[in-house]
Amino acid sequence: MAKVFVSELVLRDGHQSLIATRMRTEDMLPICAKLDAIGFWSLEAWGGATFDACVRFLKEDPWERLAKLRKALPNSRIQMLLRGQNLLGYRHYSDDVVRAFVQKSADNGVDVFRIFDAMNDMRNLKTSIEAVKKVGKHAEGAISYTTSPVHDIAHFVELAKELESMGCDTLAIKDMAGLLTPQSTQDLVKALRTAVSLPIHLHSHATSGLSAMCFLKGIEAGATIIDTCNSSFGEGASHPSTESIVAALKGTEYDTGLDLVALQEITAYFRDVRKKYWQFESEFTGVDTRVLVNQVPGGMISNLSNQLKEQGALNRIDEVLAEIPRVREDLGFPPLVTPTSQIVGTQAVLNVMTGARYKSITNEVKNYFLGRYGQSPAPVNELVKKLAVNDGETITCRPADLLIPEMAKLSVEAERFAKSEEDVLTYAMFPDIGQTYLQERNAGSLVPEELLDKESVNAAAPRFAPNEFKVTLHGETFHINLTGSGHSGEEKRPYYVSVDGIAEEVFVETLNEIEVSGGAGATTGASKKKSASNSSSGRPRPSHAGHVTTSMPGTIVAVITKIGDKVKAGDAVLVIEAMKMENEIQAATSGIVVAIHVTKGDMVNPDESLLEIQPE
């Protein structure tokens, strides 16, 4: 009798897709015994964006999370998502770093490594697969499924044959955006079953509303393992509900054998847990057939909407979603999955926010055009490429072939704050935030982002103005929509609004704060002058072309000029990280640098001058 096996994703991709990867380890451990007793083929619990989120937001050690989960799940295979030569970062790493990362992941508890490359460039998977096989673990090669003029069944079959020849134990169809249809699933699975002997593992997001139907057709065509997510974190931008699929297959030749009542006990637990993370819920994580056009993956949409919300630009998400397919075509139709989803998505945001396509181009897009992520599936837009890299030469070899071994160098760089090889690898994945995290951990000063109490916020709600309203001033009416705000407690709290559809940022100083600084209702002439000419950070507001600004909020990662330097219009003078991507900020005019208002690590906003150039 045929049987279908289930991989449960609630500990990783489920919360990545619906609450921006914010679930904490403390909320996973209490339910692990019940998860462990179900009999899943695997539990996906690590990799993907969880490593980044642990370090960046939760202030948790991702390696410690893995070790704790390993101890709490003694009878289950723990599965992780590994980005081939990218590992869990956003660049390619040298082969010795890849081998070290796989070794330590296995040592700390990973049994199944799902390995993929965002470009489907098989050269970028070889080292990871070899490393997994060497440590005696299960290597699952993944095809990143997408649709485009160059992605057809014959193409995917050739990829599958290469993965089998590399020694993979299973083959995953990774439909990260929910683009499969029932018919295309059946056709693809049948073709793969004919071409390779590997068990086929189906992964699809429910965003388009088609994935459960796709699973049934895929199972009938010969897929034997499926990815589902407990309904507490399932459906929408996540995955088909585990309980629903188990119930649908019960009593058929594809019966999973899993206990529906036991699954529902797990559901009850996670439903309560999810309430804690209400502030990260997104209105863009339900069924949305637009994904069949924009192809934004489930794991990205909640993060994208959250990032736009933080910038006060959530009202422009439809423009961004419309721009993403255009950028993807310019880049030669790469599948949209980390890191290409971030590369394409961030560039689309820049194109929308700056009001001009490719006025500002991220370093990652430049590296993409230079071939440093691998070979693009189709020819790129040569005009856009010239804008990005001028006459830069595109490499044709495997990108990692140009990298020298890095582990020794990384160990030396991190020796002041790293206490283990795992720490060195954390630093390797994210040098800036990794170093900050490790230093704060060593100092005992880690503070995770605040989880807001929904009842307290709701109880205070009557004190606040509505978030959408009309204002009539001097006979002219404006439509105001509040799209976000900064943190409470700031001296001047920023509020992000749209005025008749145009994004604006305003700063509000409460009456109590005015009383403390100068009496009720009192504001000195000097302070009025300062607020008019300076931003909330104290930096000057831009007033001429020599003032260098950023198109979106972010963090300064490099200052690449100094006072007294002569620069030309178009020269890069700063590097900012926004939405996890780096973007060079260029001089708008030629002249001499006369003032620099930022240093590495500073948080910056669009309404302030970061650097000043005296025109020649």
If you had to describe this structure to a student in words, what would you say it looks like?
This protein has 616 residues and is α/β, with parallel strands linked by helices. It has an eight-stranded parallel barrel with strand order 1-2-3-4-5-6-7-8, surrounded by six helices. Strands 9-10-11-12 form a four-stranded antiparallel sheet, with no helix packed on it. Strands 13-20-18-15 form a four-stranded antiparallel sheet, with no helix packed on it. Helix 1 crosses helix 13, helix 5 crosses helix 6 and helix 14 (317-330) packs across helix 15 (340-353). The radius of gyration is 25 Å and the shape is globular. It starts with a strand and ends with a strand. Mean pLDDT is 87; it is low at 511-532.
Shape: globular
* Through-space gap between termini: 81 Å
Report Rg: 25 Å
Task: Name the poorly predicted regions.
Answer: 511-532
**Strand arrangement, largest sheet?**
1-2-3-4-5-6-7-8
Report mean pLDDT, rounded to a whole number.
87
